[in-house]
Every structure is written in C-alpha cells, then in structure tokens.
Specification:
By secondary structure, the protein is α+β, with helices and mostly antiparallel strands. It is built from five helices and seven strands. Helix 2 runs parallel beside helix 3 and helix 2 packs parallel to helix 5.
C-alpha cells in the first residue's frame, strides 16, 4: 500500500517520486510481480515517515513507466485500475500493508450519459474562465471515451478538485449520482472563481 496526499481515480494518472527506503522496497517487490499496489488518501498526518491516518477506500495503481535518477530517486507513472476497500491494516513492515477487497458500484440509476455531458459542460465553463485568468489553454478540452462509465471516471480524474472532494467522489457507489455530484462541485468552484474576480476588480 502507498498512502499519499492525493486521490487516484480509476483511469487516472498518478506520477510518484519514490525516495524513502520502505517505498523503494515496495517498488522492488511489485517489479517482481504485476507492478500493482494500493493507493489511499492520507486524511491526517504525513506521507513521509508514517504516523498518519488513512482512508479505507482507495484504488489499485499499476506502474506503467519507471526510471531511476542519479540521486537514487525512482520515478513512477501509474494508472488507476479498480477501487478497493481496506478491511484491515497490517504492520508497516517493510512498507504499509493491508488486507483489501473489491469496492464496486452498486448501480448507476440510469441517465449516466446525460450526467457525463452536464458535468463535462460544467468543467468546460470553469476551465474557460481559468484560461481567461492565465491557466494553460490545453486544460480546456478533454477527449472522453464513448463508454459513459469509463468517461465518468476520466472526467473525475481531470477535474480540478481538492483531495477531500475527490475522496467523496471515489467513495460513492452510484455512478450517476457521483457524476452529478462532480457537476455540483465544479459549479460551486465556478461561482467562487467568479466572486473572486469581482472582488478583485473592485478591491
């Protein structure tokens, strides 16, 4: 397991720099197997040295690229696969270990395709305003796959949210409700950004 300060969604991309000996040991072990490990968000504490509080819902990461720098750091590019639930944490020896089980959606309640379209439009409005304020124009457009379930996860992964909002989405078990919640969070960010622009213009 690799507890960190961010959330990995299924279909999301997570770059990591590994420098602690315990996580170097983890990398050495996954190279010998399937290059997979669990990622969970640290709720409180630090990802360096342990002594942290971790969420129970996370994602399986697969290391698809790796390399080592001259100073000994290991660079990993990881892709999120399926979600998992931690049923029991074990001792952190030689690195964080846990017993896990699959964590899957219970239903979509229908309407996932329209929900994805609405959330995508909300993201586009938010990013268009961010681009006007100097953000990278490349962040404006995303190319989503046709499969609405996959598209919904990719949209979560590329939307600018804080880790606790991301964790809220990750833990939801209805894909349609999750995507509608994403749209709501993006709309709230747009309102906040518009307010900040107005207040900045009058200050």
């Amino acid at each position: 397991m690799f507890p960190i300060g961010s959330v990995l969604f299924p279909r999301g991309v997570l770059p990591l720099q590994v420098f602690e000996p315990r996580y170097k040991a983890l990398v050495a072990d996954i190279v010998e197997t399937d290059r997979r490990f669990g990622v969970v968000l640290i709720e409180r504490g630090s990802d360096v040295g342990g002594d942290d509080v971790r969420t129970s819902i996370g994602t399986v990461a697969e290391a698809v690229q790796m390399g080592e720098l001259e100073d000994g750091r290991i660079l990993l590019i990881n892709v999120g696969r399926e979600r998992i639930r931690v049923t029991r944490w074990l001792e952190d020896d030689p690195y964080p270990l846990a017993e896990v089980e699959p964590f899957q959606d219970e239903s979509t309640n229908g309407g996932l395709g329209p929900a994805v379209a609405s959330a995508l439009a909300a993201r586009r409005r938010l990013m268009a305003l961010a681009v006007e304020m100097g953000a990278d124009p490349a962040s404006l457009e995303v190319d989503l796959p046709e499969d609405p379930i996959v598209a919904a996860w990719e949209l979560c992964a590329v939307s600018p949210l804080g880790p606790f909002d991301q964790q809220q989405l990750l833990e939801m078990t209805d894909a349609t409700a999750r995507t509608k919640t994403l749209e709501k969070l993006l709309a709230e960010q747009l309102v906040d950004l518009e307010r900040a622009i107005r207040e900045g213009g009058t200050g």
